[in-house]
Amino acid sequence: MNRRFTRFVRRHSLAAFAATCALAWPALHSATATAADAPQVAERAAPSSAANAQAGLVARIAAQLAHKTGVRAQFRQTQTLAALAAPLVSTGSLVFVRDRGVIWRTESPYRVTYVIGDAGVEKIDASGVHTTQARARGGIARVSQMMRAMLGGDLSALYSQFDVAADGSPAKWRLSLTPNQPQLAQAIKFLRMEGGAFLSMLEITSANGDTTRLDFSGSEGIDKLSPAESALFGAH
């Protein structure tokens, strides 16, 4: 890669990282409603019988995801950008702990680690140099807040920001989310999620038509961090 193209890739990869890390796993705070409350919230938001059935499924999905306090997974991120003829693909691993944050390691095409917590984002490059990154803002930040609430069992934030369509079962589900707020729609056109016990796919379509897709594999629940992972969160 030449320097200009490398900067382009890193800039867009960081933007996608900020979006996808915020969306995919980090339910970093306790939700204002419990998973047990979610069916009532969903039913109030969806009056018809068909919508009630979908809302019930969404509530069960949220409760299922909220049950896990920690997850390890591998990821493959594919970005399709209008400015490039071919998609950008990156791979790596992540560790999510609800009350600590996310460790996001990109291993290809270059090595970099991000540690996301309440205080912000810390970038650690291949040589071990730490740099503080700004938090996500605007549409990404609003979607992040919604997802954090949803993964904690609070569906009111989900329905206040999106029109939601769901199908499948808790064992194999699909969600389609379309922004119902004009300000959010200026940044995000569409979200798709698939999964079962864990989130397996997240696709974000931006208002400009660019897409970022994350495919997760090897997901497993965790009860404790490794010493190295604890050190990263401690440093953050």
Automatic annotation (TrEMBL):
Gene3D superfamilies: Lipoprotein localisation LolA/LolB/LppX. Pfam families: LolA_3 (PF19574). InterPro entries: LolA/LolB/LppX (IPR029046), OM_lipoprot_carrier_LolA-like (IPR004564). Transmembrane segments: none annotated. It comes from the Bacteria. Residues 1-35 form the signal peptide. Keywords: Signal. This is Outer membrane lipoprotein carrier protein LolA. It comes from Trinickia dabaoshanensis.
